[in-house]
Design brief:
By secondary structure, this protein is mainly alpha-helical. The protein has 2 domains: 4-141, no CATH class; 147-180, no CATH class. It has helices spanning 9-23, 33-45, 47-52, 85-94, 96-109, 121-141, 151-159, 176-180.
């Protein structure tokens, strides 16, 4: 039940934006795929609400609420805004779960060449969640690899030596690798 205190300008904005984006916008276009990834990642983070068809905290309809760019999650599971394409890429690099989800999402999205139908969202999110769980279960069976033995770690000292830098203590200098792990 919606209370009168819930009817605020920001909630009205989020309701209108979320429903417009959900029903009208075509986010399957290549230049908007980073936005679709963020919508779907929000749905993944709130699978319980997605399955119920509404948010357990605010009562907003799902998946529509995930499509509101400024909608804040009551448990702070996602940032309260959408990233541009470059910032979303950086966010994914820093958040392994987002990277894993969006990688699998892009693979699954190929099945929907004519566009992602709105009614496919819950099943798609659940399929990806199941794949992630299976991957994590397989990962746990593997022996741990010490970071010192990885190609990334071995290449750190040599990675930036070819970049000129007028500032000897910045990322363009050959001290980067040693600075990170010292």
């Amino acid at each position: 039940m919606v209370k009168i205190t819930d009817v605020t300008p920001s909630n009205i904005r989020d309701f209108v934006n979320g429903n417009y984006n959900f029903y009208v916008s075509n986010y399957n276009k290549p230049d908007k795929i980073h936005q679709l990834e963020q919508f779907m990642y929000r749905a993944y983070l709130c699978r319980d609400c997605l399955e119920d068809g509404k948010c357990k905290h605010c009562g907003c309809t799902t998946p529509n609420l995930f499509f509101a760019p400024r909608k804040m999650d009551s448990e702070n599971k996602w940032p309260p805004f959408f990233f541009n394409e470059r910032d979303w890429s950086e966010y994914k690099e820093q958040h392994r779960q987002a990277m894993e989800f969006t990688t699998l999402f892009r693979q699954k999205l190929d099945d929907y060449r004519d566009g992602l139908p709105n009614n496919a969202i819950p099943q798609l999110v659940n399929d990806i969640a199941d794949l992630l769980d299976a991957h994590r279960a397989e990962d746990e069976k593997l022996p741990a690899i010490p970071i010192e033995e990885t190609e990334f770690y071995k290449g750190l000292d040599n990675r930036h030596t070819d970049l000129p830098s007028q500032y000897t203590k910045t990322s363009g200098s050959d001290t980067l690798g040693r600075a990170i792990f010292s």
